[in-house]
DNA sequence: CAGTATCCTCATTGATACTG
DNA sequence: CAGTATCAATGAGGATACTG
């Protein structure tokens, strides 16, 4: 995984061979990438982050905005996102209770990056669908 | 979900109104992004893609290069990546058999995008660790 | 060497019920 | 309203054994 190790300097440098053993990342870094990848690959995280991009949102609004999510997973994922520092929670001392979640600056920057991935998806949607169809037609 | 949602048809958006109808994506695209996200978030996909970035690699070399992966998951993930068109398989009619896997151009372009995410991880590693520590110290 | 085929387990998730 | 607690089911993934 040469390129991933050197990604800090070679982000744009595309693939293929890596001349020398000039790694800037150690194994701990590699593990960390996995953590972020797990977070992004999580079933609900990106949906929540994407919803929060519209501005501060209440717990129940999130539940409504993200069809199919259970209270359990909403709570759990929000906790995870807060722990990572991507999301802020603000509770207002009112009756009835009001709690708003919002993206932190860090969360916003991750969203930007994820949107790049989304753009890639959009760009190659057709190509991938064709590959899948061809592959399924005959291995 | 300002950027990701914003559909012309609001199937997924029983949500509140979408502020500005200046979207480039529809709901099918949103679903497709999830597919790509799942792929990237997969436990082994990115590791395999990263390894293949060094050049064509044999099945057994992949198994050695990616500690902890089982034959089953290596085979399964490779199949998935081939189906998506990210990876090519070339079998040489020799004895003993030789099979090489390589990144397609599409796979290379995804790697570039994922590396951007890796760069983000590297950039914000410290900040996230601090958040996590603070969060764990006291909810 | 490069896979398949089976079995099995453990973790993630969803459903349901309850509470400050 | 905004959660927490508990339990059950699904399925991803590992271990092992076998094969073209």
UniProtKB/TrEMBL annotation, chains A, B:
UniProtKB keywords: DNA-binding, Transcription, Transcription regulation
Domain HTH hxlR-type span(s) in chain numbering: 22-129
Keyword Transcription regulation: yes
Domain of life of the native organism: Bacteria
Entries under InterPro entries matching the protein: HTH_HxlR, WH-like_DNA-bd_sf, WH_DNA-bd_sf
Classification via PROSITE patterns: HTH_HXLR
Entries under Pfam families matching the protein: HxlR (PF01638)
UniProt protein name: HxlR family transcriptional regulator
Organism (species): Kribbella orskensis
